[in-house]
Every structure is written in structure tokens, then in C-alpha cells.
Task: inverse folding
């Protein structure tokens, strides 16, 4: 009887620890590899960094010149198939969004036929895969 | 007694109103004479239909002067308002190429040389289909000298080559500039 009670308590502790563990995990979005097609490119920075292949990448940079000009944003990406995507912009709104990209962001890019970034969406959230520090 | 105070009060109000009217009339008179002289000088400079010297101004001429004064005041006010304001009153950022130098500004020899060298770098890279670190450093240096329009021209040329899969940018870790 005492033995059964011990098992019951142990089981309860185990079950509660599993439940607590799950509750602490939080929502996780399914990370995607870099997607490039026509005018769109998107991908999760953390996932791309952690992926086994050394083909995919996604990045944005912001440049400033002192000789009378607005800054520039440049974003580029490459999918697993090796298709490269790039765009630039002088639009302040796009530059602000590009500057907010971090190594754990989920980024969506749109460009026009001339290579202008027409839309840069930077998502920073707990659901996205974080890059391993290696 | 009450009537006396009433009369005194009314008199004060009347005198005050009268003196204000006189003051305003004088001010208006002064402003009109300034406008008249300004219009005369403008007419004598440019308008062949100007009035003979000493002739009083016609009502049309006065209206014209007032209009000119109003327009110049408006122009002075709008000079401080940004060029691109949308209907909601928000200031829009200039689009690509809008900050180009005016026609009066001539490109310096250094700028022309930088543009030529940058174009040569791009042409060579497009021929070999590879963008190297040296190319990127070369362009970074030239871009610091180039005017925004020339800079963007080269930027778009490179971006379009990358999107057409005609330029490999592995050596520069996916960056161009």
C-alpha cells in the first residue's frame, strides 16, 4: 500500500514536470528555408544560419554616404537551389525595416523589375528559430 | 447723476473708436503709399503700359499690387514648407534620384574619373561573372566620391545582374557594396 503511494507521488511529480516543461516551451513557428521566387524572397535568419547546407543565406545592410544623399538599404538572399536575389532602396521606410533585421529575424522581401526593394518586412518574435552561437 | 455717468461713458467709447479709426486710416494710407511706390517701380522696370510719372494709380493697378504682395508673402511662407507633402499633410521622403544635383552643378574631374573607374570595374566583373572582394572595395571607394544619381545607376546595374543570375557574389558573402 505504501509502495503504491510512493509510485503515485513519483508519477505525479514526473507528470507535472513534463507539463511544466511543455508550458515553458512556448509557441514555435515552423521555420522555412530561404524561399526565392520572382519578386519575393523570405526566410528565417536563425533557421538559415543553423541549416546544414552552406548555400542558403539571407541578409540586409544599410549604407550611408556623406556626400549629400539618403542612405541605402541592400538585401540579398539565396535559396538551397542556388538562386540569388538582391534589391536596393533609398526609401526611408524600407531602410528602417532593413535596419531592424537581426540574426534571429524572419524577413520577407519584395522587389520590382528594376531591383528596387518595394517591401521589407522584419519579424522579430519568440516563435522564430534562434541562431545557434557557433 | 446716473445719466451723467452714462453720457461720460458713451463719450469715452466714441472718442476711443474715433481715434482707432483715424489710426487705422493713417496706417492704411501709409501702406497704400508704400504699395503705390513699389508698383510704380515695378511698372517702370517691366510694364510697357506703365502710368506716366505723377499720375495717380488706377484701382486695377492697386489690386495688382496687393495681389503681388500677397503672392510674395505666400511664396515666402511656402519656401519653408517641404516640397513633397501629401494630402494628409505628411511629408513624403524624396524618391530615388530626387536628390540629384541641379543642372548648374557640373561634375568634378574626380567624380567623372570615379564614375569611369566604377563602370570599368562593373564591366570587368560582368564579363568574368564574378564579383570579387577587390571589386567591392573598389566600388565602395568610388561610391564615396560619386553623386547619388551615378551611384544608383551602378547599383541598379549590379543588382539587376545578380537577379538575372549573371553575377556570382559568393566571394563577397552575398554583398555588392
Result:
Amino acid at each position: 500500500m505504501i509502495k503504491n503511494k510512493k509510485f503515485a507521488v513519483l508519477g505525479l511529480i514526473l507528470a507535472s514536470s513534463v507539463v511544466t516543461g511543455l508550458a515553458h516551451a512556448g509557441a514555435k513557428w515552423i521555420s522555412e528555408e530561404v524561399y526565392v521566387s520572382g519578386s519575393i524572397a523570405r526566410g528565417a535568419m536563425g533557421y538559415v544560419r543553423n541549416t546544414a547546407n552552406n548555400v542558403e543565406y539571407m541578409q540586409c545592410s544599410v549604407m550611408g554616404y556623406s556626400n549629400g544623399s539618403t542612405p541605402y538599404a541592400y538585401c540579398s538572399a539565396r535559396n538551397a537551389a542556388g538562386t540569388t536575389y538582391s534589391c536596393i532602396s533609398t526609401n526611408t521606410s524600407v531602410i528602417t525595416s532593413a535596419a531592424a533585421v537581426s540574426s534571429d529575424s524572419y524577413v520577407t522581401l519584395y522587389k520590382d523589375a528594376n531591383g528596387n526593394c518595394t517591401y521589407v518586412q522584419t519579424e522579430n518574435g519568440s516563435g522564430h528559430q534562434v541562431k545557434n552561437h557557433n | 447723476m446716473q445719466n451723467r455717468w452714462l453720457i461720460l461713458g458713451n463719450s469715452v467709447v466714441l472718442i476711443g473708436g474715433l481715434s482707432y479709426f483715424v489710426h487705422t486710416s493713417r496706417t492704411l494710407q501709409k501702406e497704400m503709399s508704400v504699395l503705390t511706390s513699389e508698383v510704380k517701380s515695378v511698372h517702370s522696370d517691366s510694364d510697357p503700359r506703365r502710368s506716366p510719372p505723377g499720375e495717380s494709380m488706377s484701382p486695377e493697378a492697386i489690386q495688382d499690387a496687393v495681389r503681388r504682395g500677397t503672392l510674395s508673402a505666400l511664396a515666402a511662407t511656402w519656401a519653408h514648407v517641404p516640397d513633397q507633402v501629401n494630402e494628409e499633410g505628411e511629408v513624403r521622403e524624396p524618391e530615388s534620384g530626387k536628390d540629384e544635383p541641379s543642372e548648374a552643378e557640373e561634375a568634378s574631374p574626380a567624380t567623372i574619373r570615379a564614375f569611369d573607374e566604377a563602370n570599368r570595374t562593373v564591366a570587368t566583373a560582368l564579363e568574368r561573372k564574378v564579383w570579387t572582394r577587390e571589386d567591392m572595395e573598389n566600388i565602395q571607394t568610388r561610391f564615396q566620391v560619386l553623386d547619388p544619381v551615378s551611384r544608383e545607376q551602378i547599383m541598379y546595374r549590379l543588382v539587376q545582374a545578380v537577379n538575372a543570375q549573371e553575377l556570382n557574389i559568393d566571394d563577397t558573402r552575398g554583398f555588392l557594396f
